Structures are given as structure tokens and as C-alpha cells.
Amino acid sequence: MSIEQARAAVESGDIDTLKRLIAEDPQLVNKTTADNPRTLLHTLCDYPAHRPRYRESAEILIRSGADVNARAKFERKTDPGETPLDQAVDRKHTEVANWLMTIGAKRSVNL
């Protein structure tokens, strides 16, 4: 099991694999890698309209403890790191942005 497999499941809408991977490793939901500081929720919110079954994926991630205010901080950037809400707003996906705000998501101060 790996974060790469979980990201692929989110991107493809493979709900069964996503559930299985998180059940095997509950910490996976908030893991990142050195080359990609985005969580699974960040992955989902980066063009959510292009993610099959994004609503179901979002519910699974939130129920599994995804940090709705996690910050993806990239090297050599001075901003505080983008949140999943930043991504949804930047992609003009109002449904996901509104949903994230109802569960307590915040935008980065400097974006």
C-alpha cells in the first residue's frame, strides 16, 4: 500500500481501492511525500470535476480523518501552503468549495 496507489484511486474514482488502502493504513489519509506535499484531499480538490465519484471520495476521506486545513507547502515557495479549499476555489468548483467550508475548511491567509 502506498500514497501513490491511494492518489491513483482518488484520481480514477476507484472507491473500493481507496477504502481498502485506508482500512489497511488509516494514517494514509493525511500522508504526503517529499516530492508531493499534497494530501489525498488536496489530490481530490485539484480539479474535482475531473475526478470520477469525487463526492464519494470526499466523504470517505473526511470520515477517515482527512485534515481539511492541511497545507501543501512546496520548497522554494514563500506562501504558507495551499489548502484543499484553496484548490477548489482556484479551480472554480463552487460545490466542493462550499461543502469544504461547511465542514470547517479555511483558505490560506496569503492566497
Give the helix/strand layout.
Elements: H1 3-12, H2 15-24, H3 40-45, H4 54-63, H5 84-90, H6 94-102
Helix pairs in contact: 1-2, 5-6
Detailed description of the structure:
The structure is a single chain. It contains 6 helices and no strands. It is mainly alpha-helical and 111 residues long. The protein has a single domain, classed as Alpha Horseshoe (Serine Threonine Protein Phosphatase 5, Tetratricopeptide repeat). The longest helix is centred in the N-terminal third of the chain and has 10 residues. The protein is globular. The model has no long low-confidence stretch (mean pLDDT 90).
What is the top-level CATH class? Answer: Mainly Alpha
Overall mean pLDDT stands at 90
Radius of gyration: 13 Å
Strand content: under 5%
The 3D shape can be described as globular
Low-pLDDT windows of residues? none
Task: Give a count of the beta strands, DSSP E runs of length 2 or more.
Answer: 0
- Class by SSE composition: mainly alpha
- CATH fold-level name: Serine Threonine Protein Phosphatase 5, Tetratricopeptide repeat
CATH architecture: Alpha Horseshoe
Instruction: Tell me the CATH superfamily.
Output: Ankyrin repeat-containing domain
Into how many domains do the coordinates divide? 1
| Helix-residue proportion | 40-55%
Straight-line distance between termini:
34 Å
Secondary-structure element order, as H and E?
Answer: HHHHHH
Helical run tally: 6
Largest sheet geometry:
none
